[in-house]
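Give me the fold.
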Amino acid sequence: MTGPELVIITGLSGAGRTTAAKVLEDVGFFVIDNLPPALMGGVIELATAPGSSVERVALVVDVRGREFFGDLRASLETLTERKVSPRVVFLEAGDDELVRRYEAARRTHPLAGRGRVVDGIARERRLLTDLRAAADLIVDTTDLNVHELRQRIVDAFASGSADGMSVNVVTFGFKNGTPRDADMVLDVRFLPNPHWVDELRPLTGMDEPVSDYVLGRPETVEYLRRVGALLDLTVPAFVKEGKRYLTIAIGCTGGRHRSVAVGEALAEHIRALGVDVRVDHRDQARE
């Protein structure tokens, strides 16, 4: 990539953009908050000027820019023409959680005016629909605390390399909701459930007895073979296409047994393809 590494941080107000920006600053990015998109080109010119030591730039762009925000897509296209390939990180959260955060902070939503916070959120979602669809990485912060969000950003950017693709394998329980930021969702509820085996119920898919119980089933062996073949096809194709992040969500009923065991097995399969993998067992600790 010509010029500095560039990351655009955007998304819903209250979803954690400020936290993400601080994390990027901690891992070596030069961060500019609330930058009008039309000024992106000027920032890149300064960063690439002779004598500049800036190698990593992160720009926070959001609806606080008001009329300037509409210039974002055009500005991104201009950067592409200059052979600068920005990574767009989009942060979001569920409506109820965003309302709770605004009420706790006693702040007004930038698009709510004198109306309700939830109306401002709805308007912002509509405004950001196309940008979300074009994002390289979508992070749903609904169930993330500050430390967990920090770790997600560190995992994605601390390496100092913009090359290759990172895969995030998330296991979950359908009863707790499907991850919003998943690119691919796999359902393993058809497999025999260790929950109904008394000696296995207190354990998780990380424990050998549960893992052996789940992975040793003929239907699991066949399922992993077929999903593995799908990943053998799609993962290299995504890498070739230039996709930088892929989130694969694997769900069972509670997110403690089957999804965890299968998630670990699929993560190993993906690592064998030479791709960086992070595993997050979202609901493993829940009852």
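The CA atoms of residues 129 and 193 lie 38 Å apart.
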